[in-house]
Amino acid sequence: MARIRIESGNGLQSAESIKSLRGTRESLALTDEGNSFGSDSELNGYTSERQTDKYGFIGGAQQYSEQSAEDIPPEVLRQREAKWLDMLNNWDKWMAKRHKKMKLRCQKGIPPSLRGRAWLYLSGGKVKREQHKGKFEELDRQAGDPKWVDVIEKDLHRQFPFHEMFVARGGHGQQDLYRVLKAYTLHRPEEGYCQAQAPIAAVLLMHMPAEDAFWGLVQICEKYLPGYYSVGLEAIQLDGEILFALLKRVSPLAHRHLKKHKLDPILYMTEWFMCAFSRTLPWASVLRVWDMFLCEGVKIIFRVGLVLLKCMLGSQDKLKTCQGQYETMELLKTIDTRYMLEGFLVREVIELPLSERDIEKEHLAQLRRWKETRGELHCKSPPRMHGAKAIMAAEPPNRQDLRQNPTIIVESSLATNKNGEGQEEDKARKKTKEQKNGKKNGTPVAANPEPSDTSTKPSPPLKDTPLQGSNQSLISTEHDTYL
């Protein structure tokens, strides 16, 4: 039986035009049914080979995933898991007072075992789910608009067809994907369904149950990327102009080249932005980008796009190979692997100086230009929220509290030592108060009480501390992540 190889990274082929991205057309990808990734003829090749890589892709089909993923020592991973559990169990406090530290931890990468839960909290999906209990079940029971149901059903087998969740037609992964997408069309009937939403929902489903994935999708569509999936796709076109204007600052050479050959941004950035790079990058890089994106907002998507454009078109040597419009488009369709690898890409994205203020300033400039040349926008999108902190700040004061009992109890030497120090500080404060009260009341107080014998010996480092009676990490595979 012949093996099947994927030669195009993680993605499917780009849309030929922006119009094809709307749900009324066959989109983002698959030029014809017989040759699309995920057709029965191709998937039948896997009937006897079911080994998956650590991300759940059958036969390691996700190109470059093994080479790009940076292995983290188990003891370091356990330390990160303990820190993230503390953050998740004290979420409001961390968001309000220690957001910068949380951002740094998202940049380092969320532990695989907690990624689904962290994404739900970062996006505000957890709050939405608690505020609208039973909403997803209610939508799930409804039949759905036949116009959208038909298009959704045609798209199911096209979403990551070599991932174990979606490999089987009619399998549990495709069923959950259908439920999530159908529920969204009922939740936002004025928007309906856009085919670029399917990979977003599929990525979420790899890390969380269907109800959580639904609320995660709602938050991404309404808070992170508002207007991207609406009729006319004006928001994505506007962001394309913003990206092009920002490129002039980041790489003037690349900007001049694209302008010279009249390459409209919508031709190369539509799939990048609408799918949040889930069809473009190696999987290890996708996960790291999403960790930062859900924490910091759309500026991460802009940064990734700018880094790729700068790397591919930012030097004279590279431009020698693409001296025309066609050659340039082909180059941007086949991005050099080394620029997409996890370590390099994340480092470049973090170091690129682009803030929310820069994006909003350019957004206002491009919006004025749009009105001057094209008139008013037909679809008025809600304001964009730049990351988890902005989303939380926009919630009403009586928002559902995120605090909950910890799912996993971790006893670490760091926590034990911290608790011990806290108890000693409480005792010292209490004694000081008693001494002051004693002086006021004329009661004799011992000047130098005998030292207590409750001092503790130094605790061993966290790496030697067993986690739930095991030396293993909380997770054995990347994709098994519900908690």
Automatic annotation (TrEMBL):
InterPro entries: Rab-GAP-TBC_dom, Rab-GAP_TBC_sf, Rab_GAP_TBC_domain. PANTHER family: RAB GTPASE-ACTIVATING PROTEIN 1-LIKE, TBC1 DOMAIN FAMILY MEMBER 10A. This is TBC1 domain family member 10A. It comes from the Eukaryota. The gene is TBC1D10A. One of its GO terms (cellular component) is plasma membrane. Residues 412-483 are annotated as: Disordered. One of its GO terms (molecular function) is small GTPase binding. The lineage of its organism: Eukaryota, Metazoa, Chordata, Craniata, Vertebrata. Residues 467-476 have a biased composition (Polar residues). It comes from Salmo trutta (Brown trout). Keywords: GTPase activation. Residues 109-297 form the Rab-GAP TBC domain.
